Amino acid sequence: MAKLTKAQREWRPGMPKKRRSTKVMFASTVLLLEAFVVFFATLAVFGLRRGEFPPALILGIGIALSVVMILACAVLSKPWGVGLGWILQIVLILTGIVEPMMFLVGALFGLAWWYGIRTGIRIDSEAAKREREQAEWNASHGAEGGQTD
Q1: pLDDT digits over 26-54, tens only?
Q2: What are the φ/ψ torsions at residue 148 (nearest 5 degrees)?
């Protein structure tokens, strides 16, 4: 039998489902897409500039950056996680020094990162407000108030 996660072990009937952060989901999506782009850009630089830079250096830095972007998804819910994401956006833009097209790609991903963080924060605050209002309504009307079959 498969091993249960902590959330599955602690679940009891009637427990409300913990809401996931939209900001974290948007930011994770951008970072994962960037990791794929960095991996394929690494292969492109490896093919185009193998004579200018040592192949081990190209592949090592490119794959390491891809892995860091994937691992950064795990810490986005921490207070410093979004700051790490911004640093990775700057690093991605700076890869344009090696391959000039990456300036454009990095800037576009930076814009996507900014929009995802901004929109995620707005959606999360609206959801928290709705949950507070629902809890107030439930408290004033009773847990079963307003529900008819």
Answers
A1: 999 999 999 999 999 999 999 988 888 89
A2: -125, 150
